[in-house]
Design brief:
single chain, about 210 residues, 11 helices
Length: about 210
């Protein structure tokens, strides 16, 4: 049981932090053995000046239709790039400092920085998502869930937040809701690593082998 929980925690952090470049290197190494880690394409520094929602709609369609993992990871990187964008230079600076704090394992400092970002820009989805993940790291599931709710209110397709929700539900023993969250995450991003295995295992436990 303890091994499964540690695996779930590492997977969650990789999904909602590692893909976007915030997780410490040590966490990423727990997901893939040294020498076998796959380097994601770098997100473009600037995206075309088109409507943000239309751009995301197009990218989510491309993500579902991606023919292979490499193509999917490229599209996924562009989605993260949009989520990370903010028109506020101050928020961008604070987010950079939050990343540095996490890298230095100063989680409380990172949370305070994210508090400031959310106060400044409550519409900045990724600040909520990052803080949710840091609360998760501290086993503060109540606050983590509250922040995940804020993410999903603003962006129901946030597959990182959906996967994180599934992890928390699984850890607290609510396997039915965990399965529901994982399925929603896969409906948005069918190329999420490890999640299909979690769905298969939970489906057998929750719904039975013959269903």
């Amino acid at each position: 049981m303890a091994v499964r929980i540690r695996f779930a925690r590492t997977l969650c952090l990789a999904l909602v932090l590692g893909t976007a470049g915030l997780a410490p290197a040590a966490l990423a190494q727990q997901v893939e053995p040294p020498g076998k880690q796959k380097k994601l394409p770098e997100a473009p520094s600037k995206l075309p000046k088109v409507d943000r929602s239309k751009n995301l709609d197009f990218l989510f369609g491309a993500l579902k239709a991606a023919p292979d993992e490499a193509s999917a990871k490229h599209v996924e990187a562009r989605i993260w790039a949009i989520w990370l964008q903010t028109p506020s230079d101050t928020a961008a600076l604070l987010m950079s400092r939050a990343k540095t704090a996490v890298d230095a394992k100063k989680i409380d400092v990172a949370i305070k920085l994210l508090d400031s970002i959310i106060k400044l820009r409550p519409d900045y989805i990724e600040a909520w998502n990052r803080r949710a993940t840091l609360y998760y790291m501290q086993n503060d599931y109540g606050r983590s869930l509250a922040d995940i709710q804020q993410v999903l209110i603003r962006e129901p397709r946030h597959f990182g937040a959906l996967a994180g929700l599934g992890m928390i539900m699984q850890e607290v023993g609510d396997e039915r809701r965990a399965l529901e969250a994982y399925r929603k995450a896969l409906a948005v991003n069918p190329h999420l690593e490890k999640i299909p295995d979690q769905v298969k295992a939970l489906t057998e436990k929750v719904e039975g082998r013959d269903i």
